[in-house]
Amino acid sequence: MKTLNKKLLRGITLMWSQALTIALVVASAVAGFITSFSAYDALSWSRDLYYADSRFADVFATLKRAPLTLERQLQEIVGAAHVETSQAQVVPVNIPNVVDPIVGLLLGMDPLLPQRLNKVNLRLGRMIATRHTGAMEALVSEGFAVARKLAPGDRVNALINGKREELLIVGIALSPEYIFAGLGGSPDQRGFGVFWVDKRALASAYNMEGAFNQVAVRLSPGASEGAVIDQLDRLLKRYGGNTAHGRDLQMSHAMLSSEITQQRVMGTVLPTIFLGVAAFLLNVVLGRQIATQRGQIAALKALGYDNLAIGWHYLKLVLIIVALGLALGLALGTVMGRFFVGMYEESFRFPDMHFRLRPDLVLVAVGVALTAAVLATVNAIYAVVILAPAEAMRAPSPGIFKPMLIERWGWQKWFSPALRMVLRTMTRRPLRTSLTVFGIAMSMAIVVTGSFMRDSVAVLMETQFRQVLRGDVVVALLEATPANVLYAAGKLPHVTAVEGARSVSVRLVHDNHNWHGIIMGKAPQPELQRIVNLERQFFTAPQDGLLLTDRLATKLHLHVGDRVRVEVQEGERAVLELPVTGKVQEMLGMNAYIERASLNNLLREGDLVNSFTLAVEPGFEPELLQRLQGLSRVGVVISKSTMAKNIEDVTVGNLLMVSSVLTAFAIVIAVGVVYNNARIALAERAWELASLRVLGFTRTEVSAILLGELAIEITLAMPLGMLLGYLLAAGIVSGIQTDDFYFPFVITPATYAFAAICVVLAGIVSAFIVRQRVDGLDMVSVLKTRE
Fold first, then answer.
1. What residue ranges do the domains of the chain occupy?
2. What is the pTM of this model?
3. Which long-range contacts (CB under 8 A, 24 or more apart) does 412-421 make?
C-alpha cells in the first residue's frame, strides 16, 4: 500500500467521529431531497400514465335530464373527439352493523359496450351482469371497499329514489374520475363510495329510461376547451345543464393536482434548501478541517510530493466521507420515498403507483455534494500549497490586531479574562465567526421549517371543526324544501339546535372573468356553521349583496362596491346583478355568501332550504344518524366527528409523517453542524489551550474558553435561525397555496423552542465530547514546535 494511502486510512480512523457526522449531514440532505422529490414524481407520473391508459375525459357537464336523442348533436360538437353520456345519482348507503353515515354515488354503465372514456378498471371479482334477479349487482370503488373491508359477495343497502334497495357487490374497481374520492374536498374513503350498476336498472329506478344526466367529452388534438364548453352549454341549457367545465374543476383531478402542486413545493424547495445548506456546511467544515492539517501538507511538500499528489490525497479523504453520505442518503431516500408513495394510496387510488429513482435526481444530489466537497478541498489546499514548505510548517503569522471595542471604551473590567479571550478570538476572525453563526442558524432554521406544519395543521383543524362547523351533523336534502322542515328536524330526539341553509349553483361573471360554483344562503346570525376568517373573526352574510372569499374576488377582479352578474344554473335560471359588500379570507374553498331570506326573495321561490346543521346531545349522535338514514328526503348525512377523524387519519397523518421525517433530517444536520464546529475549533486552538494549561489554567477554565465561544455562537445564531426559519416556512406556504386551499401560516413559540432545544442539546453533547478531548490533551506533543 502506498504511503499516502496509509496516511489516508490513519486520518479517517483518527477523525472517525467527525467523518461520520459529516457523512450523516450529507445523507440527511440527500435522503430528504430524494424522498420528497421521488414521491412527487411518482404521483404525477402515475396520474399521467393512468389518464392516458383509461382515456380520461377533458370536459364534464351535469344536467337534470336530457333525452338520448340529443347524443347525435353532442357528437357533432366541433373539437369533440368522443362524447359519452351516463347517469349518476347520489344516495344514502347503509352497511350492516355500521352506524356512520355513508354517501354512495351510483353510476350507470353498460357492461356489454366497450368503454371509450373514463374506463373502469376491474381489480377484483367480475363485471356486473346485464340482467339480475333479486339484489342489484354493483362494482364498488377500491378505496371504499378496503376502508370498509368489503369483498365480492357482500351486500349493502341504498335508499334509491325513496326505496331501500340491496346492492350485491360482485367486483371492486377503479376509475380515473375518482382517483380521489370524498365530499367537500376532503378525502373520505370510509364515508364515500362509488358504485357502478347496470344503467338500465338505474334508469328504471329513477324513471330515466332513454335519458341521461351526465356528459363527458374527450377533446380532439388542438381543440379549444373553451369553445367546446360553450357549445356544450348551449345544447344542455334547456335541459337544466350546469355550466360545463374542464379537468381543472373536476373534483378528483383538482384535488390530485393540488396535492401534486403542494408536493412539488415540499419535494423541491425544502429538500433543495437541505441540500444547499449541507453543501455550504460541507464546504466550510471540510475547508477548516483541511486547514488544520497545514503542517502535514507542508511536510509532504518537503518530502517531494507535488501539489497534484497532495491535492488528490486530501480529495480522496473528502470523497470517501461524501461517498459514505451519498450511499446512505440514496438508500434511505429510496426506502422513504417508497414509504411516502405507499401513504398516498390512502387518499389516491391508482391501478399501479409507479415509483422510480430518476437518474437526474441522483445526479443533482451527487453533483451538489461532490461540487461542495471538491471546492472545499481545493480552496483549503491551495491556501497551503502556494506557501514554501518551510513557511507552511510554521504556524500562521499572527495578524495585526487592534484593541476590541470594549477595550477602547474601557469596559474590559466588566469582563473576565477568559471571556475577553473568547471575544478577542471571535472579533479578530469575523468571517469565520460569521460563517459558524450562520451555519448554526441555518441548522436551526430547517428544524423550524420541518416542524411548523404541525402548528398549521392544528390551527386548520381547530378552525374548521370548532370555529366554523360548530354543529354535530350536517344534512343535505335531495332538493330544495320549504323551511318548515327545520321545525320537524328540531323535534328529532336529542337535537338541541337546528340551522338551515340554501345553496344555489351559479355562474358569476365580471368583465371577461367568470367562475362556476355555488352561492350559500346563510342564517342571519349563524351559530352552527359560521363564516370565519384566518384571524378567527366571525362574519355574517349580507342581506343586499354578496360576501366573497378574497381568492374568489381576486379571480374575478372584484373589489368591494363592484357589481357582479349572477347567472343561476337551476330552476328558472334567473340572472341577477348584485354588489360585492365585503371580502373574507377563509382557509377552504372559494365561496360566495348571502343571507338565505334574501337569496330566496331574489329567486322568488319561497322560503326554501336544501341543507341544515344539527346540534346533538353528547352520546346520542349514533341514534340520530340511524334515524336520519330512513328519511326519504335526506340525500347526504355528514357527521363532523367522523369526517374529522377521517381527515386526521389520512391527510393530517400523512402530512405530519412528512413533517416528522424532515424534522429528523434537520436535527441530524443541526447536530452535525454544531459538533463539527466544536471539534474543528478544538483542533485549531489546541496549541493555545495547551499553553494556557502550562501557564496554570485549570481544565475547567481552559474548556470554558473554548466552549464559551461555542455558547456565544449558538446564542447569536438563535434569533437569526428563528428569522430564517420564519422566512423559509413563509416561502413554502406561499408556494403551496391554491385557489381552493389556504394553508395557514402559523409558527408557535413551542416550535421555536423545540428548534432552539435541538441546537442547544447538540451544543451540550458537543461540549461534553470536546471537554473530554480537552481533558485528554497531551500537552507535550501539542506544544512541540517544528523547526
1. 1-56+224-397, 88-207, 429-468+640-787, 495-616
2. 0.74
3. 418/701, 418/704, 418/705, 418/708, 419/708, 421/705
